[in-house]
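Quick one: structure for this chain?
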Amino acid sequence: MPPMFPCGRKYLGTNNLALFFRRSPKQTDMPSSVIAHFQYDAKTHVLEVRFLSGKIYAYKEVPEKVYKTMCSATSKGRFLNFVIKPNYAYEELN
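Got it. Here's what it folds into:
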């Protein structure tokens, strides 16, 4: 199985999304009011999101830059709703 990795803390991308969703250094990767955990597979470009409900979704063909921008977002759920869901195909895994 290809390696999966959680968010890094230092990404401060230069595109508009990164600037809009940037976190302060004091914030932690979680909690989220809807997302329990997410991870990214850099080889397959799949972003897996586990929601607090227990459902797991795989979002396909997500560029690593978008994943890193999500990692630095102040609101993971908001980023998911406005950037990931409308732009990337997905499937429910459970």
